[in-house]
Structure formats: C-alpha cells, structure tokens
Amino acid sequence: MQLQTLDPKDLTIFANERDILRDLYIYLDYIEQRGIKRMTRSNEIPKSDAIKIAKLLGDSELVKIAQESGGTAWGNLLDQLAHQLALIDYDTKGTYIGYSSSAPTFTDNYVTINKVGLKKFNALTPAAQEKKILENLLVHTARELEYYGVLSTLASLRTYDTHLDQVKFRAVRQFLLDLLKKCAPDVWYSTAALVAYLKTNHPYFLLPENLPAKNRWGSPMTRYKGIRETYDYSNEDEILEDAGNAFERVEGRYVERFLENIPLILRFVEVAYDPHVENNQLGLDQLKAFRVTARFLRLMSGKESTPKVTVQPNFEVVVESDFYPVGVIQKIGALGEQMSSPNSGHGAYIGIFQLKKAAVAAAQVKNPDLDVIALLKNLSGRDLPSNVQIELDEWAGHADQFTLYEGFALLESVNEVPEADEFTVERISPSLRLVRNSGQLFSMLEALGCVPLRVWHQTGELALIAETAVSLFPKESAADTAPLPARPVKVRRVVTVSYQFPDAEAFESIQKMLAELHCPFHVDSATRTVSLQQKEQDKFDEAVQHLQDSYAIEIE
Amino acid sequence: MTIPQLLHTMCADLPDGDLNAIRKARGFSASETASRTSFASFYVTAVGVAENMAGLTPEEAITLGLLHETGEVAVAFFERLYGTGQPHGTYSQRYKSTFDAVKKNLVRCGLVVMSEAKTRSDNTLMERWRFALPPEFAPFLPPLPCTQNSSPGLENENALRKKLTQILGQNQDLNDSMPLALKSGSLYLKDQPFTLTAFHDWQLFAWNRALLTYQPNVPASLIPTTAALKLLDAQAWIKPTDIEPALKIYSFGGKIPPAEELLQSGWELGLLSRLEIDSVPHYRLAPVLAPAGLNAPPPASLDWADIASKPGSVKIDLRLIPLHDLDLLNTLTHLAIENGALYASLSLVKLGRALPAQRQAPLSLWLAEKVPAFGKTIATVNEKWGKTLIHETLLIARVRDLSLRVQLEREFRENIVVLDQHYVAFPPAWRAEVEKVLKKAGFVVKTVKA
After folding, report:
1. Could you tell me the sign of the dihedral formed by the alpha carbons of B36, B37, B43, B46, in that order?
2. Which of A188, A319, A465, B32 has the fewest other C-beta atoms within 10 Å?
C-alpha cells in the first residue's frame, strides 16, 4: 500500500497523551482504596468521585470538565472498560421500584473489585493487557458514523433505516487496523489518499457489495439511503450511489471518524485536522492526515519486550517499557517514590523512582521474606551499584528496629512464676513477661494463691499502681509528687465599685436607669447591691443625675 | 435554641400589644421598652417577678418549676396545666386554646419567654413555638408547702429484711425480676453483684412495681416515683395532700396513684422516712445508703455475727446486719447457706481482689481478730498482694535502636514506661503519636498481633 504523504505544518495536530492502561489502574486503585457508590437514578459515577479520579489522573483539563459537567467521557470510558473486562462489579440493571417507575433505580450500588478477574488481568504481560483492551474496544465501541467517541471532534451523521445494520463493525475495524499496520511509523499520510486507496481496492470494506433491495417493510432501498449529511429533516440531501463522491461522503467520513476513535484512544495514531473548518460540521475531509506510532507497530508485531530496569548510584530506578508495566511499577513503587510525571506521552513508558529508606523497611515489614537487593538485581538483570547495595542492606535492617506487640498483656512479678511459661510469648526480663490469654493466666494464678493483681490501663493514660505494689509503673503517689508544669495564666485586673441601696424602690430605679444607659452591672437582690466596673463610673453618675428629681442620692 | 436566644428573639419579634402587656404586668416604664435590644436586659431583672409569681395559681407555679427543670419546651408541655381545646384534630387545632392560655397567663405577665424556633422542617407555626423560664426567675418560684421538724422520724426496714431473706430461699416472689441469690459464693441481684447502688436500684424498681406506675414511652423523669423523689426534701417534711398537685403536673400523662399510697409505699420500701405531725403522716427522703466506714477502729462486738456456730466461719443474722456490712462481706468472703443460715467463710480469691483499704476496714480487722483463719489469710494476702501484676490494655514495643528509644522517652515522658533496655510500654491512644515520631525518624512499625 503506497499512500501519499502530507506535511502537516499548516494543520492542527492532536495526539492523545493519556495512557489508557495506566489510567485504568489508577481507577482500579481508587475503587480499592475509597470505593464508589453509584448514583441512584442514573447509575453514573457521582460528581465528587469523578473530580477526585480526574485529579488522580493528573490532567487539569479533565478536572475542569468534571467540575463543570459532573463527569468526564474519559472517566466513563475507564469505568466501562473495567466493567467489560470483568475487573469490577456493579449492578447495571437496577430495580423498578413502583408500578409507575419509568426507569430503574440503583439503590446502594457500590462498585467493587472483581478479585478473580483482576488477578487474571494482572497475570498478563503489558502488551497482552493492551491487546485485551483493544479487543474489548473493537467489540464494544459504538458505531463511529453515528456516535461520538471519547476524543472525537467530528460530528456524527443522522441516520434512519439504513444498511449500516448489515455492517460487521468489529471486522471493519480490524481490517482498517491491518491496513494501518502497513504504514511506516511517524510518517504523516493523507487521509484522502487512504480513502482513495480504499475506494479503488476495497470499495466494499464497510457496506457489503450485495445489499437487500428492500427494507424490512418492503420499501425499496438504495445503498446509502437513510444516511443524512445535514440536520434538516428534508430528504433533499440523500446520497445517491451513482453520485461521483458517494464513497467519500459515507465511507470517507467513516474512515475519519474511525481514526479519531479507537486508534487515537489507544495512541496508535496521531491525527491532523483542517484548522479552517469549525468542529462539529459535517463537511468532508476534515481529518486531513494521520501518522501511526511506533508503539502501535510494536504491539501489532506480536513481539513481547520485557521492561528495562536500571538502578543508578543516586538511588534512582529508571523503568522503561513499551507498554505500562504495572507489575514492575508495583514492585518498585513499594520501595520508594515516583519522581517523574506519570504521563508518559505518546511514546514508550519511562518512570523514575527514588528508593527510600522508610519504604524499603515498610516493604520488608510487610513481607519478611522479601530480599530487596535480589529483587532489584533480578529486575535490572545486573549487579547494583555498590553504594546502593550497602545502603539497602542497612535499610532492610530497619524493618525490625521497632516491633509493636498488640493484644498481649504484661506479667510483672517479683518472684519467679514458672506456671506462666505456657502463656509467655517473650521473656523481657526475669520479672517481666509478654503473655497471651491473660484472663486464663489470671484465673490460674488466683487459684494457685499468688494473689495476682489485674491492672486495666486506660486507653489514653497509664493507671497508677497502689503504693504497696512492686512495679515499674508509676505509683499513686506519683500523681501527688509529680510537679505539674506551671500553666501560664494572664490575669486582668478589674476594679469593681459596689453601691448598697437602703430601700427596694431606689434599688429598682437605679437598675432600670443603668440598663437604659446600657451600663453593664451586677445586682445582688439579697443585699440590694449594684456592682459595676470602675470604668463605668461615669454612667452610674449619669444615672444618679437622671434620678435626682425622685431621689436625693448621697453616697457615703 | 438556648434560653437567652429565645429571650432575644422574643424581644425582637414581639408585637407591640404583647410588649405593652408585659411592660404593665412587670412594672416597666415606656422608656424601658422603647429599645427592643435593651428590653432583653430589663426583662431578666427582678423587677415585678416576685409579685407576678405570687399571683400564679399553685398549679402554674409547679408547672413553671417543671419548666425550669426541663428547659425549652413546645406548647404541648402546657397541656398538663391548661388542657387542650379539643382532643382530636390537627396539632394547631388541639393546642390553640392551650397556646392562648399560656400567652395570656404566663407570657403576657412577663414570666415565660416564647419564640418561634427557626427550623428547616415543614412544621406548622404552632409546632415551632418554644417556651422557657429564664433561669434568673427560678429563685422566685414558690416552694411546696412543708414543715420543719427536728425529729428523725420513723424508718421502715421490713421490706429490706424480707428481701434479704430471699438469700435463704424464703419469701420468693416469682414476679420479682431482680431476685437476690447466691452464685458461686457471691451475692447477686439479678445478674449484677450485690452493692448498695444495685440495692437502691432494686428499691426504686420495687416501688414502681408496687404501684404499677411503669409505662413504656414515658420519660423516667415523669414517672410518679421519680417525680416524688425529686419533689421531696431530705430535711423538710411534706404531707401527701401538699405533694398531690405537683405529682399531677410532673407525671402528667402517666398513671398517678394517690399521694398517700405512693408515699406510704416508698416508706415501706425504706426510701422515705415518716413522721406523724398532728396525727397526719408527713414524709421526707430517708438517709442515703452509705458504704462502710474504712478508717474507723474495729468494733468490740457485732450483734449480727456469730463466730461460735462454725469454726472459721461467721454466721450472719440477716435480720440485723447493716447493708453496708453485707456489701463488704460480699466483697471479702465466700458466702454460703448451711442449715438455713448464711455463713461467710474464707476466700483467698476474693481477699486478693479486694482493695487494701477494704482489707483494712473495721469489719476486716474484727474478722482478723475474732476468727484466726481470717487473720492468717488476710496477713498472707497482704504480704503477697501487689507482687504479681498483669497489665492489660497496653501496647508493648521492642525498640532495638537506642537513639529511637531515647527519643521516645523524651517525647512521651510520663506516658511511656521503660521496661528493659529494649522494651517500652505505652497506652494505646498514644500509638498514632509514636508512629509519627517513627516516621519522622525514618523507622517503620512491625506489628505482632496476639
């Protein structure tokens, strides 16, 4: 197949930068760690989860879309893909709750990981995983002429009662992919040339040559009947088979829409659009050019390549792979932090990890049989730099520097208690033992007349031990003798003036007047005393002034 | 809504007519109600409160007492005082007349504050009204009529002694759901060990049972027996006829026995004391059951204890033993019935579990002195006690790194105990903090579970 090449310098080039396999694993991790409860009415992923997933995918554009519209097409694709690949489970049928329900309801529809399915998928090589995804998309992708793809920009055609039902789309897609395999990598080809090639050599690649003359209702049919190029409902735009460009108008449009669907999603191609045509128009030849990527040809060649792992003296581990090597990433990721951007672009995967002491020790704790040095040697296929090997040796030793015993009791005894041997897990010192089944041990010691004391410590603080007991733990007297740290207290000096009234009437009047003047005061009804701060003295004097017609108040 | 919020909302929203009514009733001047904001301050002053309280009916005063205890209430609360307009119909229809009466008699006379609760629910306005008594007015509430008399009155122990004979298998009551019985040498009230608190619970239970006043879905505070305990005083004497109206208000909606019957029954169960004043029985709360004194010297003799009938044991006379001594014996000794009598004998396990102070109590000292076996065993227990300890609810960690151990000791001082060169113990709540220190120092936790 010889196709005309094209210089795309005046075209708008688009390449998918998302790695579907990597994103699929991010989605699965999210479900495993946080879980998703799907929406009751629509059974879609809730907006909050969609935003969080978009953030994890590391794409600000996806985050923006999720925030604006409550979800993303890419996120929905990952969700469908995971379900179709049997990696997750959730209800897709729902229940019709009442007689008048027009749609099913999905109550408490939680997405869960299908552990068996995921285990099987994990066991595949990265290339096999990509092929599995491809196979799934070949089968389940909606018809490109009539439906938008996840990354589509070209408008879909309006169709009604067409021969497209006769088309075996999986076979058509596979045929076109087989054609693309013959293209040279990284060379821009004209889409029009590909359509012309198909018109000449494979004119029936989409619609079969022999099509029924009538539809199912007995009405006469033409080859392209029912395929509309405009959105008005007249029949004036019907495509006639004998029109010179009928193939370009139908099959040509299909090729354009096919290219910007599965091959673009899987980063098999990059595409170039005519910059002068607005999107979502039904015009012809808008996707002007395409080029196939090397990763597509590598995948199609069937040759499996193992991920290349390099351990550098600065403790960085570089992982290179044609496809997202999840197994290797999980192993190395557990030993450190990922340094490079997880987006691998359209090329092969390159990840850089920094080995960390805490992570190595944690991995060692999780799996005591883990030999980190052997693992890295095995993955990289060579010896490790000597400084890295020495450090890793030391780091692995950190795993048992701190061992926490949970759910055990501590037996503290002045005298030797040989009866406790069968309950002992660790002998800390001659007087201390770590024991299990403490209830049983306590009963046994009681029966033996050892007069054991059971001390229940509080969750937040140590119980104080009676003074007469012999123990390493703090005694009751410690509470009295322990000097409490001096608590800083700032004291404000307030001078209060009190006035005692001889009769109830004057006492009430002054209260009312003070309240009227918004003066804060305290009263003691028993002693008929009004108290106020010294700074409010002016208001009190003013109150006295107001009452001078009724009372001649004299202050002693 | 808090009561100050209710008050401020009321002062802000109150119609002028109601405001003027309050002003007149409490004796405020027009200038004091001129500002709605400052009126809230005037409202809670003592001005006119005592006079208005004096004008209330006894039932209204008691209801305000209950309102003070309850806090914020809806209009239905006042059904106990003013009844309802009609027994059926919507909430608004039922409580319209009640609302009018509360507003006229209590709100407009400036004693009760009311305001609409701003809730998101779609309740009707009548359901949203809330009422409360400002706590500043509580000292002005008139007390129940009572009599002061220094006489100790008469206490009744018959029911208590009868209950104790259940231990011996006598006076069994099949309807008593809290039977007193011996299980493995210890005395139990139903399923809980016999203690003074448990016994007091039984008294209350028996009181309710005697009067058949228990009703499901009625708050415990509104049960007549609980209301009576709340209304009665530990010092002053009250006669049944004086407490009757208060019981009707407090226990509204429940089954209320006659006050005489209620108080008589409480006296029979040992919960109340009784005194005849002018041939009329008066009641007050009986002294609280107190635990045995721990620091007193040993008694010379105990009239309820017989140490001669069986060597090494004490025969207990259930007609005479004080409840606090029975409680202590239950803690220290093995109890058993022999030949229709209750005996307390040695129990090394129980003595070991008892607190040192309990082993040093006057009763223990008396036992040690009078019964040699007790004396010997108590001495042995005192010697061994505190030398074998089992610590529970602790996290124990082996720390191999010395610098880490020192750092943990420095950070958690009094909350960590160094057991050995390599082991420390700390309470579980400090786990997160310890892990933070470890993470910061670059260490990880290896966990071993039991």
Report:
1. negative
2. A188
pLDDT one digit per residue (tens) for chain B, 450 residues? 788 888 888 888 888 899 899 999 998 888 777 777 778 888 888 888 999 999 999 999 999 999 998 899 999 999 999 988 888 888 899 999 999 999 999 999 999 999 988 776 668 889 899 999 999 999 999 888 888 888 888 888 888 888 888 888 887 777 777 888 889 899 998 889 898 888 888 888 888 888 876 666 667 777 888 888 888 888 889 999 999 889 899 888 777 889 999 999 999 988 999 999 888 999 999 887 777 666 667 777 888 888 888 888 899 988 888 888 898 899 999 999 988 889 999 888 899 888 888 888 888 888 888 888 888 888 889 888 889 999 999 999 999 888 888 899 888 888 899 998 889 999 999 999 999 998 888 888 888 888
Give me the residues of B, 26-55, that contact A with CB < 8 A: 28-29, 31-32, 38, 41-42, 45-47
Do residues B393 and B330 touch, judged by C-beta distance below 8 A? no
pTM of the model: 0.59
List the single residue in B with minimal CA-CA distance to A446.
B349
Q: Which residue(s) pair with B130 in the sheet?
A: B115
Question: How do beta strands A308-311 and A88-89 pair?
Answer: unpaired
> Could you tell me how many CB contacts below 8 A there are between chain A and chain B?
218
Q: Which residue's structure tokens are 């309740």?
A: B123
**Residue B381 contacts A, CB cutoff 8 Å:** yes
Contacts of A156 (CB under 8 A, 6+ apart): A145, A146, A147, A148, A257
Nearest residue to A248 (alpha-carbon basis) of A195, A180, A202:
A195
Q: B25: helix, coil or strand?
A: helix
Residues B424 and A170: their CA atoms lie apart, in Å, by 67
- The H-or-E segment that residue B188 falls in is strand B186-189
Is residue B110 within 8 A of residue B45, CB to CB? The reply is no
ipTM of the complex: 0.70
Tally of helices (H runs) and strands (E runs) in chain A? 20, 21
Closest CA to B332 of B362, B311, B306, B302: B362
Give the Cα separation of B71 and B297 in Å (integer).
48
CA distance B154 to A252: 111
The structure tokens 């990284």 sit at A186
B434 phi/psi in degrees, rounded to 5: -65, -40
Q: What angle do CA A521, A524, A525 make, to 5 degrees?
A: 120
